[in-house]
Amino acid sequence: MNNSDNTVIITGATSGIGLGLAEAFLKEGYNVVGTGRSTERLQATAAQLNAGERFLGVAGDAGKPESAREVFEQAIAKYGKVDVLVNNAGIFTAKPFVQFTPEEIEEQISTNLKSVLYASQEAAKHMVGRKRGKIINITASLALQPHGSVPALLAVTLKGGINQATRALALELAPYGVTVNAVAPGVVDTPMHAPENHAALGSLHPLGRIASIDEISAAALYLVKADFVTGTVLPVDGGFSAGR
Fold first, then answer.
1. What is the 3-state secondary structure (H, E, C) of the chain?
2. pLDDT in tens, 24-44
3. Considering the domain 7-239 in this protein, what is its CATH number?
């Protein structure tokens, strides 16, 4: 499939899953627009990807509506259209809920929830007019199946809300040919997790290991290609959400 004229926006593209998604979409032939808070990190990402004019970095706070407008305006100005939005930007903190400060709660709401709402609004306006498009949200398996050993109420609350929003927006946009889905990863091998913790984290999953970034990217690419799939939250978690 020739995707040389297709464009994807990936929020939080400078590290971890976001960087892996950028690499995967570039390999599929897409133009990639990646967002991040730091211009310097986006420049380093562009150098690492070595994609030339096929990668555009746009700095900004993903939790601000003006940032969402800016990234879509720049993407459309450079590439003409946006075919796919991947809402990947997010932060994860595992600690008892009572220990969260008001500032930390606001930061989590902004980064994990508002970023999805504002970017998805811009995507919906653009894609409805074109009668086609894909929105993919990166959520969390914990939002499908909380675990007593992982205190993560904020992640469960916010990512769980995005799971439900995925279904609701899928219904709203279905008449316009726009699909909306989510990928719900378990623990993934990213810089967030030290190698010495991988075995213990892997034991949380029935398959006995953590996921690779490539496995999350493969799920996102599947949802891009699956035109008759919408409103789905796809767990990529080694069986974590199936129960114990």
1. CCCCCCEEEECCCCCHHHHHHHHHHHHCCCEEEEEECCHHHHHHHHHHHCCHHHEEEEECCCCCHHHHHHHHHHHHHHHCCCCEEEECCCCCCCCCHHHCCHHHHHHHHHHHHHHHHHHHHHHHHHHHHHCCEEEEEECCHHHCCCCCCCCCHHHHHHHHHHHHHHHHHHHHHHHHCEEEEEEEECCECCCCCCHHHHHHHHCCCCCCCCECHHHHHHHHHHHHHCCCCCCCEEEECCCHHHCC
2. 999 999 999 999 999 999 999
3. 3.40.50.720
